[in-house]
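Go through this one:
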Amino acid sequence: MPIATVNPATGETLKTYEAMGEEEIERRLQLAEATFRTYRTTSFDERSALLRRAAGLLDEDNESIAQVMTTEMGKPVKQARAEAAKCAKAMRWYADRAAGLLADEEPDASDVRDSGAKRVVVRYRPLGPVLAVMPWNFPLWQVVRFAAPALMAGNVGLLKHASNVPQTALYLEDLFHRAGFTEGCFQTLLIGSGAVDEILRDDRVKAATLTGSEPAGRAVASTAGEMIKKTVLELGGSDPYVVMPSADLDRAAEVAVTARVQNNGQSCIAAKRFIVHTDVYDAFAERFTAGMKALKVGDPMEEETEVGPLASEQGRRDLEELVDDAVRAGAEVLCGGERPEGPGWYYPPTVLSGIDREMRIHREEAFGPVATLYRAADLDEAVLIANDTPFGLSSNVWTRDEAEVDRFARDLEAGGVFLNGMTASHPAFPFGGVKRSGYGRELSGHGIREFCNITTVWQGA
């Protein structure tokens, strides 16, 4: 894929970039290694002042960077503004809390005495340059939720961003530089995916984090495993959205629409499979389908637009194939399901019912505004359907029955269980998945410690 900004609302190529050559990559690796030697010794106060400055600059740039994101990947501009604001919030959260999250820990005194030591301290030390391979769907947030904790921990970052969001990628490097971070603290590598393997094998790169597709995750994990390097992977998701009889149906259906079409439906944590108890299935399906039909699809730069184009022509083609396969196998289209005429990579909000296990859309992630409806006879079947997926990123459950709350929280195979609300990430809470959705955690104290050398310092009498 060329490194280029292609407006998904029109299909027009606006700007192209040359991939960095070997000499420039080498220069940047050398710079990262050299910068880390000194940056690792800076204090939390110094780092937090820099990160707060970056947050302030990002707030000032909110409108301009929102328009860049919308131009590059098609999200409604209102959502792009919210994404930029969320990034500034996360920067400030880590700037305020990193010192406490990574403070030295002293084990229980009795255990220290039992070990024969006078004192034992557990310290969190940075690893070094970390390679971040990031996707296009949240082109600012996905990077910042890695960069903010990594920089506060004393690491330095090397960003390989998706090839269709180069302007956002370059903006991030410039943002941290303008904030006062030394040049080598955060660098954008304008490279294709084929260059990732060699960089990851370089001894100067100490770890990697990837958010993206399952094949990309396998490739990075394989190389990192061979090189014995730490990785964090956040891959695909096909999150269940379970509705039980005690739920507030009007609210559950209203939130379900947003949960499915946020970011034009291109979100790993978007609800995709709607599993509804048979007692309320018809009522929910009617409300949900009506809500999906009512969405305004259009130019993502317009304020009233709720669903913009998909980010790429291939992405729309992949989504169409999943829908067409399901329809051929007997699924019923309750709304949408047909590509509109005209320019841009638009696809209408779509609801399918009558899904069975043999359909591709049951097994694969639908990355776009397409929802699948399932009827569950009881709680046990709802759990069974929810877990019948290779993914396990997050989940949503609507019920006011406390016994059901406990059961779903215990039995759903996912990195998150959101009750009577939709999945969302927040800097204070760990984020990540199980099964083929990846491993490791981002955000919170768990996320900042992922790329730390947890060091036991034992001191004898």
Observations:
- The radius of gyration is 23 Å.
- The first helix runs from residue 22 to 39.
- The mean pLDDT is 98.
- The chain has two domains: 3-235+437-460, 239-426.
